[in-house]
Specification:
By secondary structure, the protein is α/β, with parallel strands linked by helices. It is built from six helices and six strands, in the order E-H-E-E-H-H-E-H-H-E-E-H. The two termini are 22 Å apart. The chain binds flavin mononucleotide (FMN).
Length: 176
């Protein structure tokens, strides 16, 4: 396992694109693995200095079985297992207490006030803290222009820069 791990859930591929861009940014300073919640190991070893998690906003929060089913019915999404995703991975994960962590989500661009009330990353951060992890940076939000994507212009590059900044926070003082 590398020094950073990015675990994502993605119905239409946008959160996966962001996860891979964050991983590319992290790779500037940390050996980084990226995996979907379906594939990621739930046992995270002590070599991992930073765990980044992220996925889409569904119904004001993280995807749940009912919202994944909604994505299939309403938008014709293909979801292999609507019973499992990032929330379920975080419920099962075992990570050494004190490991660094950060959360992101993807969502539609709402006016500021609604955005404050409405985001998956808030729940992701709660679950990360519940695991005893240390948030190294506030959550970041990336925007899609339509529920089925694509991402808004520039979001992939912004994700790469955020990943690089996270790696710099984690390695500050230890880089040669
Ligand atoms: C069932 C469902 C509920 C959604 N609810 C919200 C929402 O409450 N707020 C929001 O900003 N976007 C909402 N969206 C749009 C998603 O955020 C968008 O589909 C997602 O960011 C795309 O990421 P993905 O390609 O990784 O699935 C919803 C989408 C679906 C399918």
């Amino acid at each position: 396992m590398g020094e950073a791990l990015v675990v994502y859930e993605s119905v239409f591929g946008d959160s996966e694109t962001i996860a891979r861009a964050v991983a590319a940014g992290l790779s500037a300073h940390l050996a980084t693995d990226v995996a979907s919640a379906a594939d990621a190991p739930t046992g995270v070893g002590p070599d991992v200095r930073l765990l980044v998690v992220g996925g889409p906003t569904h119904a004001f929060g993280m995807p749940k079985p009912a919202t994944r089913e909604g994505a299939v019915k309403q938008y014709g999404a293909q979801v292999e297992n609507t019973g499992s995703g990032l929330h379920e991975w975080l419920d099962a994960a075992r990570v050494p207490a004190g490991t660094g962590a950060a959360a992101f989500d993807t969502r539609m661009d709402h006016p500021k006030l609604v955005t404050k009330l409405n985001h998956a990353a808030k729940s992701e951060e709660k679950l990360l803290k519940g695991l005893g992890l240390t948030l190294v940076s506030p959550a970041e939000h990336f925007f899609v222009v339509d529920p089925k994507g694509p991402l808004a212009d520039g979001e992939e590059e912004r994700a790469r820069q955020w990943g690089r900044a996270l790696a710099e926070i984690v390695t500050a003082g230890t880089r040669r």
